[in-house]
Amino acid sequence: MAMIIDELFIFGGILAAAIGYGGLVIIYSDLQKWVPEWRTFMHARKKNLPILALTTPGSGESYWVLGEKDDKGDPTFDTKQQFGIQVDPNFSGQVIPERYKGGLKVYHFATTLPFAIDARHTTAIATAIATARQNEILDFLTDDELMSLLNTDRDDLDEYCSIFIEMYNPEYNECPLAAAELINSVIATQDKLARTAIKSGWNSYAFAFKNIATAYLSQDLHQYGLLIERKVRRNMEDWSKKMAFISIIGFAALLVLIGAAVAYTMISQ
Amino acid sequence: MTDDEPYQDAEFSGEHYNYLRDFYTSDYLPLLVNDIKASHLSPRAQRAFISTVVGACSTTTFLSKQQNVQDSEIGLELILNTIIPACNKTDVNLPEYPRLLEQLKEHMRYIATRTIGSDRERILNNRQTVEHIQTMNEKEQEKKRKSGLGILGMFTGKTGDD
Questions:
Q1: Same domain for B126 and B102
Q2: pTM for the model
Q3: CA-based nearest distance A248→chain B, Å
Q4: B79: closest chain A residue by CA
Q5: Of B90, B82, B101, residue with least CA distance to A142
């Protein structure tokens, strides 16, 4: 049975489809432009994976990366090595993730550090610096240097404080600061920090990452892995070369044996 | 031997031993160690650097047999990577830090070239030295043999000691 469709309907249908597609394109481009992480969040909720918030210590900008793994039991996340190696907090220690609706977990990493931290750590670092800054003798030190000194073993303080005194020749109360005074101030601050409770207040991941004293970067850990891989690969190459050489010798010996057997058979007949 | 008097400075009575000492050690090691000690690195970082440097320039390293320079370099890179956890941010921001690392890398590259090959340079040289000394001894004994009891020398004026 033939159907008669009015041209108007056809044009109307095409127009509606075009508007629909246009709308979809606009929504999609808006999503891509303004919510570029939508796929990350979608996959994280779908596959029950954590999201890694990677903060740049300098600028404070963060990136959202899906916390995927090559194998289920891997201790590190596979972030395509874009920011070195990030260790799964389940292996590295007690880090409390931020939890969002739908079971979404967010771990905070720096773009330069292999281990995650949480809000307790950020406030602890802020508290440590604020408490240490109450000691005016330590004013000539930068935050990095202050944290380095506070992280120094007491056996080494004598030598390390002398290095800072030699470098800066600081003054306190218009008198040259002696190394012994600096050592005593650092020890007193270390003792005070051991007794100080973590204060509540503002917290900043960028500030915390910037002031963590370690110099070992996630990129260094990545490089270490690459070097081990290179070493193993080279050993494998050597082994395969040896095996190839042995195979050739073995094959040549086999040919000689077969040749000799054939020759013997021919002669014996 | 104390810290201030490393074995590189030890003087032996025989020239041959001094030669061997120079051959199996690095004259650059004490300078590098002094550089590290004079740097503004933290004591922990200094210790890590010194132990790496001493290990990298040890007689064991000189006498080791490596397949190729690249393998040695990978090994060195791995050791240098493990220095970093002993450093803090202040250390790595010092201008001395990259300089010391590069000095060590460059020096190790030269040492590595002496540890490769089947007939290695150090063994070859050592053998030549031993052979040379043996030849000299043999020549000397031959001279003494030729000189006999020295009776002829009393008349000719030539003795085996010449």
A1: no
A2: 0.73
A3: 22
A4: A224
A5: B90
